[in-house]
Amino acid sequence: MNVLKHNGYVARVEFDGEDEIFVGRLAGITDIVGFHADTVSDLKAAFRDAVADYIATCVKAGKKPEKPYSGQIMVRVDPVVHARAALAAELAGKSLAGWTEGKLRDAATREIEAA
What we know:
2 domains, elongated, single chain, alpha+beta, 3 helices
């Protein structure tokens, strides 16, 4: 999967072989924002325009544009899992937050690369 990044937003990009165009969609937000182009340079411009248009449309509608993820998550786990994770973090010489971030990063990278 190919991605583009601009102004804190990320887009997934695919090639549509039937129509022979690149098709992109903003990722990480629930609103649906898409764009397309025939060339890579036009695709990058269309992506930047889509982000700007999304923000402007939200402002015009009185809606706060969704922001890409803040970096904070709340996860509920079984107390046994919590205790084991805390022990693993301590044994690794890391805080639980730092240890968890590393494990999530590794798992997310594997999933994304496998997609």
